[in-house]
Amino acid sequence: MSLAENIQKVRENIAQAAREVGRDPGEITLVAATKVQTSDTIREAIAAGITVCGENRVQEMTAHLGDDAYAGAALHFIGHLQTNKVKFVVGKVDLIESVGSEHLLEAIERQAEKIGVVQDILLEVNVGGEESKSGVAPEDLFALAQKAAVLPHVRLRGLMAIPPAAHAPGENRPFFAEMKQLFVDIKGKMDDNSSAMDSLSMGMSGDYMDAVREGATLVRVGTALFGPRPPMGAPH
Question: What is the domain extent for residue 114?
Answer without folding.
Answer: 33-202
